[in-house]
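Blinded run. Sample ID left blank on purpose so nobody reads anything into the name before looking at the predicted structure. Input follows.
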Amino acid sequence: MHTAPLGDIPFNSAPYRGLEHNPRVTVRRDVIFGGPSAEPTADRRLYFEVAELEKLLALARQSPTQRVVLHHAGVRVRRIQDGSATVDVLSIVGDNLQPEPFALAGTR
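Blinded prediction complete.
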């Protein structure tokens, strides 16, 4: 079975579709931490447990937008050294995870 690398999957490629075409909305900042364009030798990983993914899907299915929202969202980075290997392990932090009650203007 062939599994496509994440770079081939349009993962969160347009979390707020339509923003760029809505005159009422101005994007104030757009920052990417890490990713395929970052340091090519950096080893950064983000792990998801099945239970976490199932919870996200269950909440998204309750939403009229089919999405979840995590308030006060952030990224925690832990650098782990194991012999000569160094890995940055990322995790998403925040609170008040819930179904998105409605879409922001121009996001759907």
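Unblinding after everyone has recorded impressions. Residues 41-108 form one domain.
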